[in-house]
Amino acid sequence: MAPHLVQPGWRFWRQAACTLGASVQHRTWAGTPRIPRPGSLWGATTTSPRICRSGSSTSARAPEVTLTRERYPVRRLPFSVVSREDLEAFERVVPGRVITDPEVLEASNVDWLRTVRGSSAVLLRPRTSEEVAHILRYCHERNLAVNPQGGNTGMVGGSVPVFDEIILSTALMNQVISFHDLSGTLVCQAGCVLEELSRHVEERGFIMPLDLGAKGSCHIGGNVATNAGGLRFLRYGSLHGTVLGLEVVLADGTVLNCLSAPRKDNTGYDLKQLFIGSEGTLGVITAVSILCPPKPRAVNVAFLESPFYVLIETSGSRAGHDAEKLNDFLEQVLRSGLVTDGTVATDHMKVKALWALRERISEALSRDGYVYKYDLSLPTERLYDLVTDLRVRLGPQAKHVVGYGHLGDGNLHLNVTSEAFSPSVLDALEPYVYEWTAGQRGSVSAEHGLGFRKRGVISYSKPPEALRLMRQLKALLDPKGILNPYKTLPAQA
Ligand SMILES: O=C(O)CC[C@@H](O)C(=O)O
Ligand SMILES: [Zn+2]
């Protein structure tokens, strides 16, 4: 039964918390959001979604994913093709960790959304940055293209090959190097899974500065390489602020060790920033030093209802004080009529259950068939206009047009679903969505990066001068273009 508020008061809201899950699944988010408060905003689909785990999916019943080179107009660049001698050379560098088994490779060639598919014939699993350096030095000399891969949970086809690039997996680079329990500085290898790092630092009284729905699979190196935003962005800021140092292996095998970074370091250009968000096109991140905030002693999650659903998390150090402030806010929004119903949770399991509903929207939508995904920064007051506009524009062509995201960050996740990929739905969406966003001076990729699928739209958000400088940087750091080719920057004519 859905919780109903007959009178304001957070005690009542707390009691209602456990009934919430059932109450949200059959509502549609519609109208303009009216609560410009910190937190994450989301809309439920009109169907009851079944949930699967994130990460690579290789369901036996799932239809074959079309090869990227067949679906998209993309030409293979003149890289060498992996030979028997190359495999033997790799075997000497990472013995027993050169994978050529087609079944194992299948999961690494396809993105978890099952929208793009490469045809790599080899996957390498180094354990150390020295091994990565050896591999890259060799590939650089041989002109072999390399696709760095973390947890393969990206949204824009950046983590899988387009053609036959060698997949360089960070899966075995999963060691915590150190944790300083006074400063909260964590140093770890790039392949550590975010959820495991969270557990590690929480046991020591800290939390990771980022949290994502894909935390059970994504690697910290991939998070940094894509400058992942996620659910704590509003509170703790971007990885450009929380990453203190990086170790990166450059395309020619040079190891750039900028890992041991003190909190303040103003010596020259801040090189690590170049690699944060570069999607593996400028270097392979092999280790990360990151600042973890102290674990908050009091966490409250409020979930307010209809016609929009808003999840607000507060975290602080004094439970009584925080509850009082939240209660004041809730009374105010109820009195003003902005909010009609809701619930508050403080219990850890209930907090987790509420967040799980928000975190799993993406996976739930993928059950519809094909999902056209847009990750837009827009002025908060216009955040939902595009959703209502597209419902009219697409009509019955779309199964669902859903808007959710991170309201406090001005970040809309616009997801349009159809039974299967349809060029006519795509034509109705693009370039319309990008032009609309550029018209608002927004960003066509707020937090997911450009990868393969969005690289052609960078110009909607960046001027030609910026793009030229990016190309120059790429040429400087990776003159042969072997690192994650066909990603981030548009193809050159
Ligand atoms: O699937 C999406 O479009 C968004 C995924 C993720 O960034 C989220 O906020 O849930
Ligand atoms: Zn998001």
Secondary structure layout:
Layout (H helix, E strand, L loop, with lengths): L9 H7 L3 H4 L16 E3 L25 H4 L12 H10 L4 E2 L2 H8 L13 E2 L4 H14 L3 E4 L16 E4 L6 E5 L4 E5 L4 H9 L17 H6 L7 H4 L2 H4 E7 L5 E4 L13 H4 L8 E8 L6 E7 L4 E8 L2 H18 L5 E4 L2 H12 L1 H6 L3 E8 L7 H10 L5 E7 L4 E8 L4 H7 L2 H8 L24 H14 L16
Parallel strand pairs: 3-5, 4-5
Antiparallel strand pairs: 1-12, 2-3, 6-7, 7-10, 8-9, 8-10, 11-12, 11-13, 14-16, 15-16
Share of residues in helices: 25-40%
Structural class by sheet pairing and helices: alpha+beta
Q: State the low-pLDDT regions, or none.
A: 1-60
Write down the overall geometry: globular
Q: Kindly provide the radius of gyration, computed on alpha-carbon positions and rounded to a whole number of angstroms.
A: 23 Å
| Assembly level | single chain
Q: Which strand-content bin applies to the residues?
A: 15-25%
The N- and C-terminal alpha carbons lie at a distance of: 59 Å
The helix count comes to 18
Number of strands: 16
Major sheet: order of its strands? 6-7-10-8-9
The overall pLDDT average reads 88
Major β-sheet annotation: 5 strands, antiparallel
Give the total of domains: 3
Bound molecules: (2R)-2-hydroxypentanedioic acid, zinc ion
